[in-house]
Specification:
70 residues; Ubiquitin-like (UB roll); four-stranded mixed β-sheet; 1 helix; elongated
């Protein structure tokens, strides 16, 4: 079930596209336009598990130095 309020501060979450950063091995990946829920107050981000798994697979398949995946 998708949360509607931030677990940190209780403020309503809004849908947004974010830049998701992750480290795979020794490489930093920045993936743009990732769907997420973002807290309007504290900025906490929530990404669905399926989306996170797809991002991890995408980064692993495109493992280039200094990779920037769109």
């Amino acid at each position: 079930m998708r949360p509607t309020h931030c677990q940190n501060c209780g403020t309503a979450l809004m849908e947004a596209a974010i830049v998701y950063e992750m480290i795979v091995g020794e490489e930093l990946f920045q993936i743009e336009d990732v769907p997420a829920l973002v807290c309007r107050e504290c900025g906490e981000q929530w990404i669905e598990q399926e989306v996170r798994e797809n991002l991890e697979q995408l980064a692993a398949e495109n493992g280039t130095p200094g990779g920037h995946v769109q």
